[in-house]
Amino acid sequence: MASLNPLQGMLGTRRSAHLLRRTSFNFTKAKVDALASQTAEQALPDLLTLKTRQLEQPVYDDPGTTGTIENTTWCLPTGLPLPAEDFALRRYILSWWINEALRDQGIGHKMTFFFHQFMVTTANSAGNTNFYDYLALMRWGALGNFKKLAFKMISDNCMLRYLNNNENTKNSPNENFAREFFELFTIGKGAQVAPGDYTNYTEDDIVQAAKVFTGIRANQNRTIIDPETGIPKGFFNFNQHDTSNKKFSNRFQGTIITGAQNVAEMNTELTAFVNMVFAQPETARNLCRRLYRYFVHRNISAEIESDIIIPLANTLIANNYEIKPVLSRLLASEHFYDADDSDNTNEIIGGMIKSPMELSLQAITFFNIPIPNPLTQPNTHYNVFYSQAVLQRMFGSANFPIFFPSDVAGYPAYYQNPDYSRQWFNSSSIIARYKLPAMLLTGTRQIGAGPNQPIGIKLNIAPWVRTSGTISDPSDPFVLVHELLEYLLPEAVDADRFDYFYTKTFLDSLPPDDWTYEWQNYLNTGVETEVKIALERLITAILYSPEYQTF
Q: How far apart are CA 292 and CA 159, in angstroms?
């Protein structure tokens, strides 16, 4: 029986590593060890807290200056003029967000991305600063109130343009946004039961919802600020609003929403509509299913639906759609740690395929590879590393065009039944995934044009083993391999698999004393050639392994 009962006892290394892999893109031994000495309930308050960002916004080097670095901002405050090179700065916003995700030791960016793939727009749907505002709104709602976030999204400048609500008028209704608000953002479609009639709403409900949304317009110059979020938003154009009453089907209990008769009443009408949608239990259940597939597992059986999804949805409703109580209950549960049945190694831990973001960022943070400073090395930081290496090769070549999903439903690995996360691993993405260790160990692109060009970072493996403190006794080859596998793989390997990594790969079938001798020689002379070869062989094998591809 699937159980939401809190997991008892200290987490230990295996479970704390599982919790951290699933909740953060920043994965370090120090954090795993700190969580290991806590219970699940003790570990969560810190993880469920938004962390301070390294930079509040991206910066760029003013090309109009020579010989000096001018760290210029253009996103905040909102009244700043757009730079002449604004067209080229989109990658700065994307790179800035990924860098903040890499440094975030909590769940904030993981939840921000969850809501992005839940309420999708693209980075080029409006201006660069409008997309920055969209990301800010996702962050604002990441650990807040889902109902409020859905309401705020209705007037987001990017979303208004992406789903064509900017063209939705009383004389020419556009149903795009209304359709996706139902199907993707909130209640979900459900199975079709008759022509134009789905489990949770009808085509006529979409028509009525589109009328509710008429006259909501984008404000490209960001002069209208939401007083609650502090983020720029769109505005109400009453002249383009349908003032008639909107009658909804029996899917919404025949609710009639009174049409606004002036611009002030448009907000009242919109509030009544959102209240109607969120009064349906299926809205909460749909969100909880999405959370479950994002954090736990792709399969939702009848047992999971009754024992996990519905109780979580009831928790969400009881807390007026606040997200934290639901996350706290799910991530502290016996079920999340696969401890609610007799076999605790067969289902949850290691049960999903890592996205390219988890695969790359968790490796970079585990090995503590220094990232070029965005203030003192802006070109290397934004262009060489994040744009050319991360965005184009680690992500793009692995079929993950971050913030440019292929359609309004988002990235297939998060929604497409039955494979879900398995879609991260296929014939077109495998090369990029398997090139990751070579990229990190050589510090070069490996893929695409200029494969030998530097990427701005490099894993110097021998000094890392020597000084990081990750390995308790690097001179002992058994300890070294065991501790790396313990932290880098989701489950302990059996004896044959350990022998593959230890004897065949690392020692190259030589006696263990040979490693101890070479390591001591490296400590005495600083010559790392021999130990580097063995360590790179081991790291490559681990990062290649099927086990490392999962989490």
A: 25
Cβ count near 236 (within 10 Å): 22
Residue 59 within any structural domain of the chain:
no
- Cβ–Cβ < 8 Å for 130, 155: no
Region label for 407, one of left (φ > 0), alpha (ψ between -120 and 50) or beta (otherwise): beta
Kindly write down the DSSP assignment for every residue of 463-491, as one continuous string: HHHHHSS-SS-TT-HHHHHHHHHHHHSSS
For residues 275 and 320, membership in a common domain is answered with no
Say yes or no: 301 and 266 in one domain. no
Residue 428 within any structural domain of the chain: yes
Task: Please indicate, yes or no, whether residues 271 and 317 belong to a single structural domain of this protein.
Answer: no
Which DSSP string do the residues of 70-104 spell out, in sequence order? -EE--SSSTTPPPPTTGGG-HHHHHHHHHHHHHH-
Number of domains composing the chain: 3
* Cα–Cα distance for residue pair 505/372, rounded to 1 Å: 32
> Within this chain, do residues 267 and 314 fall inside the same structural domain, yes or no?
no
Q: Which ranges constitute the DSSP H helices of 367-421?
A: 378, 412-415
Same-domain pairing of 485 and 526: yes
d(CA 179, CA 207) in angstroms, rounded, equals 9
**Cβ(413)–Cβ(379) under 8 Å?**
no
Residues 197 and 317 in one domain: no
Q: Do 242 and 308 fall into the same domain?
A: no
501 vs 147: CA distance, rounded Å? 49
Could you read off the pLDDT of 127-180 as tens digits, one per residue?
999 999 999 999 999 999 999 999 999 999 999 999 999 999 999 999 999 999
Q: Which of 337, 160, 185 is nearest to 274 (CA)?
A: 185
pLDDT in tens, 65-83: 777 788 899 999 999 999 9
pTM of the full predicted structure? 0.95
**Parent domain of 533:** 356-544
> What pLDDT sits at residue 345?
63
- Which residues are CB-contacts of 184 (< 8 A; sequence separation ≥ 6)? 118, 119, 120, 408, 409, 410
Q: Report the alpha-carbon distance of residue 548 to residue 540 in Å, rounded.
A: 11
Burial of residue 228, with CB atoms counted within 10 A of its CB: 0-12 exposed, 13-18 middle, 19 or more buried = exposed
Q: Rounded to an integer, what is the distance from CA 539 to the centroid of its chain?
A: 25
Q: Cβ distance 217 to 235 under 8 Å?
A: yes
